[in-house]
Predict the 3D structure of the following.
Amino acid sequence: MSKKTERMNRLIDILKIRSFVSIKELASILNVSEMTVRRDIRLLEANRIADNVDGTAVYNSAHSVARFENEYSLMVEAERQDSQKEIIGKYAADMVEKNDIIILDTGSTTERIVPYLSPNSNITAICYNINILIELRRRVGVEMIFSGGYYHPNTQMFESPEGIQFISRMRAQKVFVSAAGVHEQLGVTCANGYEIPMKQAILRSSLKKILVADSSKFGKLKQAYFCDLTEIDAVVTDSGLSDHWRQLIDTMGIELHIA
């Protein structure tokens, strides 16, 4: 393993523990120049592992990379994985209309919607996830509203009773909600109990409820239930969805969009 690969893995380990660290401090810890750290972070950005926000590296816990084995894998991982999520994100963005107010749930799939939002359509986006906020910050022309609160590093999500009240007072044409599992009998679920109140609040605050989830989530069950599938108006997923689930969603009268 090269020195660069070892340094990159150490950098990832630091960000996993700290969530965000200044480039200056990282240069000191790694005993390299700030320019070297900036180059490393650009590679992490390509792999969706971290972002450079005004001189601070911010970790993205939703990435799919475990560890790099060699320098070649640094570039391979940037193009591998999550192609379905990228396609779903682009498709979902096309569902946003001019003057829409939208809410983006926490999640790696909802994050992929942001780069495809039209910058000239007077769109307002409400969110409560640091990585989605970072993506929105890059999207010139999209107005941002952020709900703060207690920070959860494992999901990059902010939540608090005040944040939930804030969201509950908002109204949106569309909400794009994520899920870790969609079960035929036991409904739509997520991985963490603290996500439930916010997910339920955004569903109540929106006219059209759109579930964005890759096909691997269907048939899975996680411990934290937040709604029945019948409460969802539309599903955006990929072509890997089984015929059984296609028929079930159609029977429920839910719009099905295959990206």
